[in-house]
Automatic annotation (TrEMBL):
Needed co-factor(s): Mg(2+)
Enzyme Commission code(s) on record: 2.7.7.65
Domain GGDEF: 382-519
TM segment ranges: 272-292
GO molecular function, one term: diguanylate cyclase activity
Species annotation: Vreelandella alkaliphila
Catalytic reaction annotation: 2 GTP = 3',3'-c-di-GMP + 2 diphosphate
Alphabetical list of CDD domains matching this protein: GGDEF, HAMP
Name of the molecule in the record: diguanylate cyclase
One example of a Gene Ontology biological process annotation: negative regulation of bacterial-type flagellum-dependent cell motility
Annotated keywords: Membrane, Transmembrane, Transmembrane helix
Superkingdom classification of source: Bacteria
Amino acid sequence: MHQRIPWSLRFRFFAALGGLLLCAMAALAAISAWVIFPALQAEERATVKRELDRVERSFQLDQQQLHAQVRDWAHWDDTYKFVQGEYSRYADVNFSQEMFEDMRYQLMAFFTSNEDIYFLAGINPKTGIYQTCRTPINDCSWMSPWVNNMRAAIAENSTDQNSIYAGPPTAMMASSPILRTDKSGVSTGWLFKTRSLDAEWLAFMEVYTGLPLTLNLSHEAAPINDTFSFSGNTVYAERYFPAYGSINHLSLGVGIELNRTNYLTSLTTFRYVLLWTAGLMIMVIALVLLLLEKIVLKPLRLLTQFTQQISTVGADTHGLTKRNDEIGLLSRAFQEQFTCQQQLNAELLKLSTHDALTGLPNRRLFDQRLDVAFSEATATSAPLAVMMLDIDHFKLYNDHYGHQRGDECLQQVASAFNSVSTRFGFLIARTGGEEFSVILPEASPSSAKDVGEHLMLAIDHLQLPHATSPVKPFVTVSVGIAMLQDCQSQTPSAVMSSADQALYLAKAAGRHQVVLFEPSLASRSVSAHNKLL
């Protein structure tokens, strides 16, 4: 008869394995309670704070844009003249209900240097009708609370900033001293702009941020920390900003409501993982070493080689991108990211070398190409021509038609220039406001002048109306050409200076013509330059 052994190896093995499993489960429970769950909660709060940061950045960006717009208007010669009573048509030319609605302005106020109201314009928040006033009374009495805040800001000498005012209604306000465009002289007054933080603004910000937003005005000082409120599947978070008004210790709370689905899903998933980990731990330990090399380590090595060789070989020799697992996803994501990075680099290069308005090369690219063309022409003794073109009386065009039409004119002129440059195969760049420059390698004086004639005729064919031009009733250009061999100093700046002198000669001769620089004309170009000045 065999005696039973109470502490057999089999029993001790299962006891040890059971004890190890209990210890592992206890460790998992402790890690979950003290590390994982707090980390998930911290990550959830961090995610909410990132969204609040994004909302705050959008809010601050809106304030900065309003402040920049105020400065742009306040540092404008026309505004300077308007407040001094020298530009009676200023309001008619620049103000309209459409402008206020497009720029989302509620009120614009002009004050003289004596702190008196000079002009008020805005959209009545009750009627939605555009109004202009000299004093905030009667139909314009709705402007009075904001005007009082503006006067208080002038008294406190805080007129070059943006702030939030409690209202009514709540609004952001930006201000700036009124100066000449070159900021010479003393301030002739102050300009204020307000933008109501109403339902329309809130809807705009919700579209901009992609988040549901709320605004709450508190009669307490803005707390330092954000506030969080968790309720079921949602979390409501609020961040406060200091506000100004007739009551001290005001603050504006901007709140967002986010869904907690990701957090709750992660929490539930993690709990299931803990249960399955406890039941499958033994089997996982037995299989992990066997499968590690085949499923993880080898594909990772191939993925490393793929990421190192994609910039030089560019081919997926191991078919990683065709896999339907995580390695395949990583490979495809990396390949897409690498392609996207190349495209972004190409776009960045284009942005740094091309004019944003016209799409033509800018001065930076022009100077680079000029240096290359100059070096090649010097090394081979080949001819080199450069050309400067200027739109005749473009300032009169802008003053008459407005800057928007001026930009459209520049775009059409640039398109016409680009068509000619494509046909003849040369570089044309926008190197100034209405100034363009051309490089013509290996061009003779006659061929360069022929190109100038084509460019001038291309603009003539556009027949862009220019009612205030003393040259023609349509937009025209003047062209100055210089040859490298005609310059006293063999440098890129010298040949461009000669082209500039030829351009001044063309202007002095009545504009709308092509002039080729000659050394004998140098003194005449100086006198022409002085005459134009």
